[in-house]
Amino acid sequence: MTSITLGTGVLWHGGKAIPGCPEALQKLKELGKKIFYVTNNSSKTRAQVADKCRNMGFPADLENVVCTAHISALYLKNMNFTGKVYMVGNSSMAAALDELGIRYEGIGPDVVAASEASFDSVAKYQTEWKPNPEVRCVLVGFDPHISYVKMIKAATYASNKNNLFLATNEDPFLPTQDSVVIPGTGSIVATVKIPARREPHIMGKPGTAMFDMLHEVHGLQAEKTIMVGDSLKTDIAMGVNCGIKSMLVLTGVDDLRRVEENQNSDDPHCRQVVPDYYIDSFATLGEYI
């Protein structure tokens, strides 16, 4: 069996490991199980995720970290992409593209000057801005500098059906431990796909791109793999989409009430998104090993 595990909500909260989880994961590794950390977070490189895991006591290296910044770059590299990427993203996504020699533009702030903040100041893009013909792909991830100008440019490129349109994930909000709502990458993706009138190809969960890479590079077999996660919409749905068993951990986003709602839903897709197993905490596994 191969275990694909997640981070926030499954193994840690914030910067602190959930008690017992590092020990449980280490026991699995000692039994020869392959462990992969799979995250939709596009703002961290694989090295940064591996460092975070090790600092909390989890065994990790680059080879068993799968993040959407790397998967997006690898997807383009494997298809021999030679154009330029217009990226709504961050420095970690840029580093992933740099590592594989993929050209891009769009990183960093791109805003209308405060003195020109009116409809006329953005309407002028219809005549004064010319799309770069080298851009053949739009890649949208977490971007703290998202702006109306970036929406115009990204939506324009994405509306061209000859261009690729990729998104790291569509998570609507980020997990937090307080009442402040932090919009997630899905909120940013929506500002591009709605005006572009086109759906992106999702690189992260619940899509299959991450497991496809693990199958190709590490030889993972669906029938010998289990997806461990705390979110029905992303983690458990990825298990369903990839044809692998799944386990819901009750230390994060969803609980058994949500599972029951899916089971009784009128939506046939929701009825499919039900875990094969559930457990109170990932740490509990360590008690049975």
UniProtKB/TrEMBL annotation:
Gene3D superfamilies: HAD superfamily/HAD-like. Transmembrane segments: none annotated. It holds the Pfam family Hydrolase_like. GO terms for molecular function: metal ion binding; phosphatase activity. Keywords: Hydrolase, Magnesium, Metal-binding. It comes from the Eukaryota. Its cofactor is Mg(2+). The keyword Hydrolase applies. Mg(2+) binds at residue 230. The keyword Metal-binding applies. Divalent metal ions. Mg(2+) is the most effective. GO terms for cellular component: cytoplasm. Substrate binds at residue 205. Belongs to the HAD-like hydrolase superfamily. This is Uncharacterized protein.
